[in-house]
């Protein structure tokens, strides 16, 4: 497969070399948490020239940041809560991220059907008009109204009784876990050292001053200290494991959200639906995503194991009922579900519990300093991660001296995905068309998929295939709807610190959510690639396969799911407890 010479490889860097840097270098800040919030902080800080370390106790994006509704959006429902500032910020950021990572951001039509007559139509029209005003400059067209016939054409099967028509507006989709990897790669491009499966155990102080973090490499069991002037706690729902709550400081309230993934049959393939056909009148989404339909979400308080949220049967039935009310001809049942996803939102309150439903709590983020030398951030939305990172680093900079402390944020113009300049949607489409020009057949399919996932780094994948043609083979030859290849699995292992089967299939390639067996058909192949690259013994490879079977139980239909393990502990047991 012919291609241009690959660009300089920019991923997360080799884990071992990054660990060596963590041991020997002194950093301006160590970011604890490898989700989108920590990634945004690291990217902003590194791009300003600060010396940045990032540690994540599991795999990057393994928590909340791989379990969202996969939207970069303003949050239309937040206008109902009069949270105009949050919506304006989010819509602005949607446009910024769309230009910086155009391969991962796609403006999608959202259909909002109206069944309540002219009052409901007038109320929503006013809200969408404000949404349009707040989104000026983001590249999205204004909303429009469709009559009943046009609505049925756009979404065949939508409930027709009482249908007045629908509004169509635009919001953006993304792959949340891949966005985390891309943003962390942006930080690495500017010199950050990132390592997954490294757990922080304590803030280290010397003569009363913070001087770094004590950590453990969960793969080897080694403990060491990362020297840093500031510790940034960006651990989401795990924040209070790092920063003890204090009177007058924000508290983190985990809220659980569940999604179902089902075949697209009966749902519009090119538009999302946003409606309120739940029994309690709550709005929910049906969104086309990577070839399947994603249905969600719920919103409820959570007090269980933070590492192991699972979908309950009643949550699954709630969403199935809502989808069947919206599309009565679909007749979804439990047997139709490909996968489920339960995630935890780190909402913020000034009290451990203020008695309000979690859906009414603000999605605004809070940045505070629990003590000199420690900065904490919690709350926020996937959409606003860049701006959140900027605010954290502004706070960190006040603790630093010299030119580094006085630097200003530059991420608004710092492209991701190997691109050399920000690009709007139209410019990106022209670039993509040029990259695909003259390429036909399987080579065109391969390149198109590589662009969608890796942006301007697609030649790296093609260079890998040119050296080993077997890497072009699909991981799922019996399921052509899942387009992932062996080359992508190997890329994740070599360049994105994927050190387990779950890292590859659940987070880098997302197939655990797209197939009825949670990707088990490719487990042997991926485990063999891991063993080849990481020097595993046969025993370790078999242990990794068993670990994956346990891990993906959390995505299975309730009643069929295995007990979900503590992934950090199991990672160490699998990778350390088995002879090399």
């Amino acid at each position: 497969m012919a291609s241009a010479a690959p660009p300089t490889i920019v991923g997360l860097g080799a884990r071992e070399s990054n660990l060596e840097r963590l041991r020997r270098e002194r950093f301006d800040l160590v970011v604890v948490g490898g989700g989108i919030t920590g990634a945004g902080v690291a990217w902003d800080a590194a791009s300003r020239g600060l010396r940045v370390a990032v540690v994540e106790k599991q795999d990057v994006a393994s928590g909340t940041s791989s379990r969202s509704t996969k939207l970069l959006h303003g949050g239309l429902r937040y206008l109902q809560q009069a949270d105009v500032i949050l919506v304006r910020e989010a819509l602005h950021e949607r446009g910024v991220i769309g230009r910086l990572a155009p391969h991962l951001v796609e403006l999608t039509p959202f259909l909002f059907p109206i069944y309540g007559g002219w009052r409901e139509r007038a109320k929503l029209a006013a809200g969408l008009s404000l949404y349009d005003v707040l989104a000026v400059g983001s590249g999205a067209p204004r909303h429009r109204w469709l009559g009943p016939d046009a609505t049925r054409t756009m979404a065949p099967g939508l409930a027709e009784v009482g249908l007045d028509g629908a509004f169509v507006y635009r919001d953006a989709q993304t792959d949340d876990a891949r966005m985390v990897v891309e943003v962390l790669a942006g930080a690495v491009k500017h010199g950050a050292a990132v390592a997954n499966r490294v757990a922080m155990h304590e803030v280290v102080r010397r003569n009363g001053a913070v001087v770094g973090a004590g950590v453990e490499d969960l793969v080897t069991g080694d403990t060491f200290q990362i020297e840093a002037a500031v510790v940034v706690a960006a651990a989401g729902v795990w924040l209070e494991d790092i920063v003890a709550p204090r009177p007058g400081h924000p508290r983190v309230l985990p809220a659980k959200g569940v999604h179902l993934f089902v075949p697209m049959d009966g749902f519009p393939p090119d538009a999302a639906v946003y409606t309120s056909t739940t029994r309690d009148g709550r709005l929910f989404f049906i969104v086309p995503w990577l070839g399947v339909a994603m249905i969600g979400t719920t919103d409820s308080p959570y007090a269980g194991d933070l590492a192991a949220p699972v979908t309950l049967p009643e949550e699954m039935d709630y969403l199935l009922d809502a989808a069947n009310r919206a599309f009565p001809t679909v007749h979804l049942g439990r047997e139709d579900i490909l996968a489920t996803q339960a995630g935890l939102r780190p909402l913020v309150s000034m009290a451990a519990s203020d008695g309000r439903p979690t859906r009414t709590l603000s999605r605004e983020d809070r940045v505070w300093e629990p003590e000199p030398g420690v900065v904490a951030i919690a709350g926020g939305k996937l959409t606003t991660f860049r701006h959140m990172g900027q605010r954290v680093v502004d706070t960190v900079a006040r603790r630093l001296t010299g030119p580094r402390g006085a630097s200003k944020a530059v991420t608004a113009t710092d492209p991701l995905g190997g691109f050399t300049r920000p690009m709007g949607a139209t410019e990106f489409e022209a670039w993509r068309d040029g990259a695909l020009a003259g390429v036909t057949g399987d080579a065109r399919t391969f390149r198109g998929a590589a662009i969608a996932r890796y942006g301007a780094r697609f030649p790296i994948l093609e260079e890998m295939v040119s050296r080993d043609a077997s890497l072009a083979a699909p991981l799922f030859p019996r399921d052509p709807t899942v387009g992932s290849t062996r080359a992508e699995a190997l890329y994740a292992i070599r360049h994105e610190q994927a050190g387990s089967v779950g890292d590859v299939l659940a987070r880098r390639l997302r197939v655990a959510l797209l197939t009825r067996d949670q990707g088990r058909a490719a487990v042997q192949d991926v485990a063999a690639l891991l063993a080849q690259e990481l020097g595993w013994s046969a025993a370790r490879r078999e242990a990794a396969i068993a670990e994956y079977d346990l891990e993906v139980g959390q995505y299975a239909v309730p009643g069929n799911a295995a007990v979900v393990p503590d992934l950090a502990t199991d990672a160490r047991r699998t990778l350390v407890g088995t002879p090399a």
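Residues 1-7, 561-580 have pLDDT under 50 and may be disordered. The first helix runs from residue 15 to 24.
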